[in-house]
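Exam review. A common question shows you a sequence with its structure tokens and asks you to describe the fold in words. Practice with the pair below. Do the first one on your own.
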Amino acid sequence: MLPKSKTKPKAHLNDLTALVYGPSKIGKSTWCSHAENALFLATEPGLNALEVFEAPITCWDDLLQACAEIAEGKHDFKTIVIDTVDNAYRMCADYVCKKFKIEHESDLGYGKGYALINNEFQRVLNKLAFLPYGLILISHSHERDIETRTGKHTRIVPTLPDKARKLVTGLVDLILFCDLDMKTGDDGKPIYQRVMRTKPSPNYDAGDRTGRLPEMIPLDFPTFLKAFNQTAAGSAVSAARTKSEPATTAKPQTKE
């Protein structure tokens, strides 16, 4: 049971778990549709313009059934996309309420219903994340007022309830915020480019545990994949060179 050697960093994108979030219609689903052998677990309409493998998910039981079939491995999919994880969480809440025959999660007493929902939600996401496939969770974004010791400021975050959002952001390897970057053109007029932001900021949630990505990258999957793979290849070459170089021994200092 206990390991005999250290695990190596995951080299491929379809070994990782990512949260992709941003405003509606910015291109999140389109970006995810280019992931390798992607299967969409579609919890809401919105894929009509895309040619993708889609499993409609209308309730939590549907999601559990899809997860069971994915875990069996009798398919060619390499990336699982939950679009959106926000709706999946609401389905989980409905499932728990129905199971305990209550109208609302607060009916089970202080905090108990919410804890049951979050536990079930985390259980299923963890199971998916441990499977040998990439996992991408899509969410929308909204602005929240954040209280700090220095005052109040606005921060853009995924549209999940606080505890569910913390579960998701703690689980994933990548938090990718889809946004519009504004520059001024030669004529003085603003030019907008759709981008992904990958590094933490006081103004939005983002993060990259791999350390491979630039702070901002165009919202274009081939460009993203090229940057991700180039950095991985460069790290591998650097490690190989370091391993092959002979160790140097410092000469002992002599006293004058």
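Now try the second one, then compare your answer with the model answer below.
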Amino acid sequence: MKIAVLGANGKSGGFIVDELIHQGYEPTAVVRNKDTYQGNAKHILVKDVFNLTQNDILDYDVVINALGFFTEATLKNHLESTKHLISILEGLDTRLMVVGGAGSLFVDNDETIRLMDTPDFPSDYKPLAVAMYEAFDYLKTVTDVNWTYLSPSAFFDFEGDRLGHYRLGGNQLLVNDAGESRISYADYAIAMVDEIKNQKYKGQRFTVGE
């Protein structure tokens, strides 16, 4: 299976590349600057997401979007890059896997209140959560591309251990017995790679928790 990881130089992208390698794949890291790539992928494609063409991804079975846009000027690129990827994936069998956000997960059983709209949600993260939600909201309208969106738990732990197991959920925030919503980057990466193999959530969003 040929897999390309966009944003392979980022935190989530790096963990996903390493997990793919750990499970025997040879992923292609798609980066804007080869000189700054510090990861372990043997295959590298140097290209900005907005310059990617259908020919660039024609031979890939899976494209993983792990891109991050965090500044006020670039937040709009969550939606714009998603639209661009959909435009070049149309007509292909290539699957799009998206590293999503937790802010759009619901915190109630009736699924009326999203995490990002709760009083305790950090105001500094609200613009990012909204931008990621807008991209996800658009993705939900797409029917002619095979996509899957994976949201982490509320606390996405970069330094967390690779436990090797996790819990799966749908649109609602997962909380453990201690009342915490968390997942390590390492275990999130395992869930992403497992879904590539299991193909359980086609055209859907799911979430993962510790």
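Model answer, second protein: The first strand starts at residue 3 and ends at 6. The first helix runs from residue 11 to 22. Full marks require stating both points clearly.
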